Amino acid sequence: MIKARHNNLYIWFFRNYFRLLSFFQFRKMSVVTDVNLPENRSVLLFQNHFSWWDGYWSYELSRKIFNRKFHVMMLEEQLRKHMFLNRCGVFSIKKNNRDFLDSLQYASGILSNPTNLVVIYPTGELLTQHQQIMQFQKGINRIIAGETDHFEIVLAVFLVDYFGFARPEIRIYLENYSGNRTVESIEKAYHSFYQTCVTKQTE
Questions:
Q1: Where in this chain does the record put each Phospholipid/glycerol acyltransferase domain (predicted)?
Q2: What is the pLDDT of residues 103-151, one digit of tens each?
Q3: Which are the contacts of 154, defined by CB distance < 8 A and separation ≥ 6?
Q4: What is the per-residue pLDDT across 10-23, written as a single tens digit (0 to 9) for each?
Q5: What share of the chain is helix, strand, coil (3-state, %, to 5)?
């Protein structure tokens, strides 16, 4: 597997490059949340994955909302095509490979530090934002099994709409998860939260 590295120069370039692009592409980014997190816990963020922009938006969340060090899991074949992302906190996972378990264990290790945030796209693939029912990958159990009091789980739903403007707005909805820490329970809660977000989006 490819472990995350954090290089300040690369992070500076990544942040400013995407900030400039987003200025021309989007009207604004809004965050709808009442999430409350203790400072002594890390964050495991479950996020829908529907666009090229998702990594940048979750990076901005890590800075502006969570104030934690950004890490995100990416398929190894995709990361190797964009290796500069590794120096911005991206680490790899390879399906159907013995490195798969190493990546999950590595993510668990990152979460042992309360200053960290780990982003996971639970479906493991890009899906349209209109698909509200998503099947979570079972391997997530390897991260949330056992002692988990040291990190908080947060659900994130990213939705894009134009609302009558030339440029779209990205709205990010966040919610604390406090149910049973199993893939099945989190998946059910995520589906319910997603539907709630879509309803708010259309009000």
A1: 31-144
A2: 999 999 999 999 999 999 998 887 888 877 788 888 888 888 766 789 9
A3: 35, 37, 43, 44, 45, 46, 66, 174, 175, 176, 177
A4: 999 999 999 999 99
A5: 40, 25, 35
54 three-class SS: helix
Angle value at C-alpha 101, between 98 and 104, nearest 5 degrees: 145
Could you list the beta-strand ranges (E) of the chain: 28-33, 42-47, 69-75, 90-93, 116-120, 151-161, 169-177
**Which residue has 């479950």 as its token pair?**
46
Which domains, from first to last, does the chain contain? 29-201 (3.40.1130.10)
Half-sphere exposure of 5 (CA within 13 A, CB side): 11
Bridge partner list, 116: 69
Maximum pairwise Cα distance, the chain: 49
